[in-house]
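[Meeting: bench + compute handoff]

Bench side (C.D.) handed over the final construct sequence. Compute side (W.E.) agreed to return the predicted structure before the next meeting so the bench team could plan truncations. Sequence as handed over:
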Amino acid sequence: MTGYFDGLDRLDLDAHLRRWSAPDADRAHGAVSQWMAAAQQFAARLREDPTGLTDDRWRAVGQAWRALLAGAERATGPQGNEWLLRDLNLRSWLLEHVGPRAGVPLLDPEAVLEGALAAMPLSAEEAARSAPHWRELDREQIMALRMIRRLLAPVRTLGPLLAACPRWVEFQEWERLADDLP
């Protein structure tokens, strides 16, 4: 079922929603580059004019976006958190430009925070011990520290929306490490 990746650059948002909401979309097969292109084109269409969508439309967008990312991960594996990072970055951008909406999971700032914190590859204590001398670490440890930096980025801009969230303090602890991360 590679037809899912044909003509991605010509699809408008409605066509992306139909394509990734189809019942058999979760069985689509494709190379990592095809899934990346699909996610990139979907996000690009969404970013063109995100302000005029109704809550129902936002819910449909969220379902199609999750289906696309779930299919990508099923077909290709996590790819170094590629699909999670694409999700967190798009959500963060949307929250900055559209704002949160109750009952619309895609526009829930706490979901970005929770997703980033859940994916941290090290404990905050391990990262605090390792970060100041990262140049002396092996490649795997350096990559874990870089992943922390990448996971912090989409949450950072959402501070005003997350200040009252119980886990915001936990994020701030991670953020204090940012200057020492590679």
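W.E. noted at the follow-up: The mean pLDDT is 94. C.D. will use this when planning the next construct.
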